[in-house]
Amino acid sequence: QVQLVESGGGLVQAGGSLRFSCTVTGRTSDKYPMGSFHMGWFQQVPGKERVFVGGISWSSGNTYYGDSVKGRFTISRDIARNTVYLQMNNLKPEDTAVYYCALGQSTITSPRNIDYWGQGTQVTVSS
Description:
Blueprint lengths: L2 E5 L2 E4 L4 E8 L12 E7 L6 E7 L5 E3 L7 E6 L4 E6 L8 E8 L11 E2 L3 E6 L1
Parallel strand pairs: 2-11
Antiparallel strand pairs: 1-3, 3-8, 4-5, 4-9, 5-6, 7-8, 9-10, 9-11
């Protein structure tokens, strides 16, 4: 069974940086031939919906981002390690949320498109 294991997160002051990683375990090639899947990140705060942060095509490496993080966050992948990274720069208090790694068959812009979720990791940005 495919599983997503997150690491990173924590507490940081405004303007600082954090780096997340998400490692895929299990077999993906049967369900997603030729690496035809996308990975990325969502954020969620209490009482609000889970919101898209950014994504990457595993096969091509093309990335795409939500409006709130464009120019500040960068997603990359390490194929040999089956790992995707989220580099978060110039963090703001409004970035405070639980961050979830996600994997889906196509472009991920909604939780409805996600097949697998990571466990969720807290990011807290102080003023």
